[in-house]
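Can't attach files on this board, so I'm pasting raw text. These are the components:
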Amino acid sequence: MEFINMRVLSDPHSIPVAQAAVASVAELCGISRKDISKLEIALEEAMINIITFGFPDQKDAYFNVSVDISGMDFEIIIHDKGKPYDFENVGDDLSSSAGIKLMRGLTDGIIFKNLGGKGREQHLIKHLTALPSYTKSPQEEEVCELENLEFDIHPLRKNEAIEMSQCVYDEFGYTYPSELVYYPEQYYEACQRHDYFSLVATAPNGEIAGHLALIFSPHFPGIAEMGIGVVKKKFRNYSLMSKLTNEIIKIAENDFKLNALTAQPVVYHPYTQKICNKTNFTACGFVLHYLNYDLVTTYDDVGDRGNVAVAFRLFNDELKEIYVPDEIRELVSFIISLSNLKRNISDGSLPPEGSLSEVITDINQRMKIGKVFIEHAGSDIHSALKNSLLATKREKCAVVELFINMSDACAPYAYEKAKEFDYFCTGILPCTQNGDYLTMQCLLSDIVDYDSLHTIEPFTTLISHVRKLDPNEG
Amino acid sequence: MNIAKLSKGDSLLVSVGGRLDTITHLDFEKELDAILSSGDIAGVTNMVLDFAALEYISSAGLRSLLKLQKDLNSRNIALIISNPNDLVIDVLSITGIDQLIKVDT
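---
Top answer:
Structure tokens for the assembled complex are below.
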């Protein structure tokens, strides 16, 4: 956990200021006065390295000094983007080497990191002998232990919107992609417009105990995503999420008469995938480098990118012909076999010369995610894809999702063209009123560490298909 | 940082208090230069730096000590550090300065 992060002027007079701040934090962590003095000397040595060698001629340069406390380590991190210099390999004479010797001898460890264009870091490490008192877990909220607690499950009321928004923040921080949820009044209005359907469970005293929503997309009529699910910690002994899920499934099928419902179980643990398997949701794809659900407490910080799976529960289906590229027939057939979708798979055809594509590009600027929808691929699909990708790059999107309508005979042609831009197949999104969509992604800023994903069957088989198609996997 | 000097026979005792670091080491050098330029140094064979009140020393301070020692050597005057605290002892030991300058604990 980063405790403080200071931007300091590259001037020797910044040293005592930074030392005082670091010393205060060290005291809080129970480090002895003697060891604090040692850290102060090591910090002076690290900072003077940068001032002398990193910014020798610059009076107005800055660098960062931060303190990170993780596990049992107190770590001072000094990060600069000054002139490259090898701090470790200095001359052998005592005068030149005293600084590095003091950094090594007065701390429990030092690490030098060369980050290339991102500069350098010097890490000064002190092992803690006891966890500082402030890191002790806050007192657990009193758990409600009443038996037979009756919850009232109903659509969100206007006066509940703020409390619902607070519940979402407590669970997800600012990482939830449906950003409207952080604007209670606007979210309630969106529910009135049927952009969302929000279901809340309230305790007898009126307190919101849990929430779950249907999220509708104008691009995918006929289906909805089940999401924004949260149950307050004190009410987690009552199978409330299960009750909300069962209720919202009934509403989706009977009231909204949807063809299918989708869900996004995470892949950093298998538990939500297990729930999908138990509740008749079928694995159908993944969204990679989406976001993670670690608590992010500022609106502009989207945190590190993580991965989610996609699953769907079928309510209503009819026989359809879909045009599937050869390369992904096995993947699509696998999903169809799991879910009993009624599909005839066909080869497809080339678009007529001069025909125009129907492509829509949608960019979430806060989350830096682009979405491109191909309803019909014309002979100009290559330039349409290029233009949409450029638009997402201009907005500095890290991830672009591509949806190709498989009821279009030219879908396989669009797939081959998309691959030229490093898009790769991540699954399908079936059962919309407009047809089934082939989902693809282009990762603009990073690659996926597939070995770090925790999946169970059938998600495991599905991700192995996706991995083979990922051009970054070589 | 504060400096006070006291003569005692053929030893010149200089007490150094406070911090000897990046910011103060130049003042230290200036003060010692002034002492070496003054008449107080005549007939002195030892300069003893009393570090009893010195709380903190960094590599900048050590470089000033080595510079002082070099200057004193050219005058055949020995440099001795006395009464360093535990932190200063550690610093002198880690850097090996205690092998070059006599330290009297």
